[in-house]
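pls design
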């Protein structure tokens, strides 16, 4: 789902995605708005199931996700000139933000975390 960046304003615009592959089945609901510094703020919730590998036993298990995720994105290069800005920014360069790609990246980040079955 690619959306042109100029369509966003300071008024939040809602979105909903369903992402399903062999090892996960999730739904993402959220909103996007443009901040005064030109960043896009993506305020979202990921709900669903993901297959993970236990880092202790090596066994595969299913974890139920219910996470609030806040992301920031910028069309172009983000220059972090403020010392109090301690967050990552997703940069893209074609005036379109691809929400599917962004949240597939978030799923991959979740998979790379340390997971213990039953905890």
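designed seq:
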């Amino acid at each position: 789902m690619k959306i042109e960046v100029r369509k966003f304003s300071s008024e939040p615009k809602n979105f909903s995605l369903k992402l399903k592959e062999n090892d996960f089945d999730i739904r993402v609901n959220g909103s996007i708005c443009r901040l005064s510094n030109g960043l896009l703020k993506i305020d979202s919730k990921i709900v669903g199931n993901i297959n993970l590998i236990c880092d202790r036993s090596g066994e595969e298990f299913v974890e139920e996700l219910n996470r609030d995720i806040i992301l920031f994105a910028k069309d172009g290069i983000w220059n972090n000139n403020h010392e109090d800005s301690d967050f990552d920014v997703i940069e893209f360069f074609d005036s379109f933000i691809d929400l599917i790609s962004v949240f597939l990246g978030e799923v991959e980040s979740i998979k790379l975390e340390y997971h213990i079955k039953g905890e």
